[in-house]
């Protein structure tokens, strides 16, 4: 007798549908995770791992040496090593012998104020080791034992790791980066290297502007110690998107920053002679003069900043004059290519080597903010002339520098695509983390 199969109830197809959807979502999640792992390896390739080398067991030897007492000394201003050691019981002969023994490696007469010196001694007071921090990457080690004095220069391990930061402007670029845990120098690099020719970070920023930066963080001895290079960056200013990608030419090793199409991010002139300052007066054909109390042209832009703030040349050029001129105070005038001239007024002093005939590059210091001449407070009056006539520094359009060399355009596009993914990687990872939360 054949028993008929039970009729298919309404729940059975629905159960199979749920299982099918679950299997599809699990498969999709696995594909996304695999793709992200592959993507991360392409963007940030793993570094080779050194093979493990077991160390031979140490043979038993003489008893351990007595523990050393270490004194840390910060070198005071106007002090010599001899001064510091005499206060700790060294004789003139010991100081002389120490200096002569170490001189082939480092001249101890060159120790600098503010650097740290470490002196290790055994309990009876005899010194056994001296260490001196030459700079942030090198330190001198001097050992003394029965065989004499030995000195060597050692190096702090330096590493570079790729990092990412993003933020929104509420007040200033520096404030936004500080809020994200980064230092002022990253903001300055972003201005100087990537976008300082297109955006005046003193006047063009708006609340709500946003940025993304992929960069290399520097580590000394495992501790964060500033930055090396910005690899890629994006800045959205009043809705307009600017991107910059670093590219190094394989043949010359020269590098620069370019846009998505290989156009140079640099132009003939920087937008501002001061990296970050406040504009107090703009280019005008009839401004009320605060000292002379009359209306007259003001063919420049005034940047208020503390006395001593560095003022940079906005383009390569030659200094045609550097001196004092009546109401202008201390002033530097420069001549540039394509019939441009610039002037920097009211300086407190001039930059190193700035004199008539000196050749400067864009970004070099021409002087420092002051209040010389007809001035009511510390500021820079910056002016540009084209064929001898004044032009508005904030509105004049300058030509871009040379674009990427054509023979490397394909290589650049691949590099820009890789770095473009790096700028979006945090978003991709966040999107992937939402997959388990999908309902079905």
3D structure, described in words:
This protein has helices at residues 11-43, 81-86, 92-102, 173-179, 184-195, 409-433; strands at 69-74, 116-121, 127-133, 138-145, 148-155, 158-168, 210-220, 223-237, 240-248, 255-258, 278-281, 284-288, 295-298, 301-304, 310-312, 317-325, 329-335, 340-350, 359-360, 365-369, 379-386, 389-391. With 440 residues, the protein is an alpha+beta fold. A hairpin with a 2-residue loop joins strand 8 and strand 9. Mean pLDDT is 82; it is low at 48-59. It is globular, with a radius of gyration of 32 Å. Strands 11, 14, 15, 16, 17, 18, 19, 20, 21 and 22 form a ten-stranded antiparallel sheet that branches. Strands 1-2-3-4-5 form a five-stranded antiparallel sheet, covered by helices on one side. It has six helices and 22 strands.
Q: State which percent range the strand residues make up.
A: 25-35%
**CATH superfamily placement of the domain at 278-391:** Glucose Permease (Domain IIA)
The number of helices is: 6
**Low confidence ranges:** 48-59
Ends distance: 42 Å
Succession of helices and strands: HEHHEEEEEHHEEEEEEEEEEEEEEEEH
- Rg, Cα atoms, Å: 32 Å
Quaternary structure: single chain
């Amino acid at each position: 007798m054949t028993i008929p199969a039970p009729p298919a109830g309404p729940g059975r197809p629905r159960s199979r549908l749920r299982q099918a959807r679950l299997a599809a979502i699990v498969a999709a999640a696995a594909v996304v995770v695999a793709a992200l792992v592959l993507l991360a390896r392409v963007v940030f390739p793993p570094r080779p791992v050194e093979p493990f080398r077991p160390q031979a067991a140490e043979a038993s030897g003489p008893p351990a040496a007595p523990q050393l007492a270490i004194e840390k000394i910060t070198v005071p201003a106007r002090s010599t090593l001899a001064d510091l050691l005499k206060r700790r019981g060294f004789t003139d002969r010991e100081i002389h012998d120490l200096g002569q023994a170490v001189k082939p490696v480092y001249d101890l007469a060159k120790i600098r104020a503010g650097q740290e010196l470490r002196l290790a001694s055994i309990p009876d007071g005899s010194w056994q080791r001296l260490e001196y921090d030459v700079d942030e990457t090198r330190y001198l080690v001097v050992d003394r034992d029965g065989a004499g004095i030995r000195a060597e220069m050692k190096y702090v391990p330096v590493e570079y790791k790729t990092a990412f930061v993003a933020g929104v402007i509420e007040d200033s670029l520096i404030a936004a980066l500080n809020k994200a845990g980064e230092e002022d120098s990253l903001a300055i690099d972003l201005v100087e290297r990537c976008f300082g020719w297109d955006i005046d970070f003193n006047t063009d920023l708006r609340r709500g502007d946003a940025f993304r930066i992929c960069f290399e963080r520097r580590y000394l001895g495992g501790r964060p110690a500033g930055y090396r290079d910005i690899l890629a960056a994006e800045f959205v200013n009043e809705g307009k998107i600017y991107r910059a990608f670093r590219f190094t030419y394989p043949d010359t090793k020269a590098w620069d920053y370019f846009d998505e199409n290989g156009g140079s991010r640099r132009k003939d002139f920087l937008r501002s002679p001061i990296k970050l300052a406040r504009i107090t007066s703009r280019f005008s054909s009839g401004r009320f003069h605060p000292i002379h109390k009359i209306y007259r042209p003001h063919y420049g832009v005034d940047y208020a900043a503390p006395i001593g703030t560095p003022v940079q040349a906005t383009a390569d050029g030659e200094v045609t004059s550097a001196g004092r001129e009546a109401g202008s105070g201390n002033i530097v005038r420069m001549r540039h290519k394509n019939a441009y001239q610039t002037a920097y007024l009211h300086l407190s002093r001039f930059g190193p080597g700035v004199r008539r005939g000196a050749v400067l590059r864009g970004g070099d210091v021409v002087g420092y903010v002051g209040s010389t001449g007809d001035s009511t407070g510390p500021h820079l009056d910056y002016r540009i002339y084209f064929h001898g006539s004044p032009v508005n520094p904030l509105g004049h359009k300058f030509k871009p520098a040379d674009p990427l060399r054509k023979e490397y355009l394909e290589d650049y596009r691949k590099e820009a695509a890789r770095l473009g993914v790096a700028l979006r990687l945090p978003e991709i990872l966040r999107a992937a983390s939402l997959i388990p939360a999908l309902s079905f």
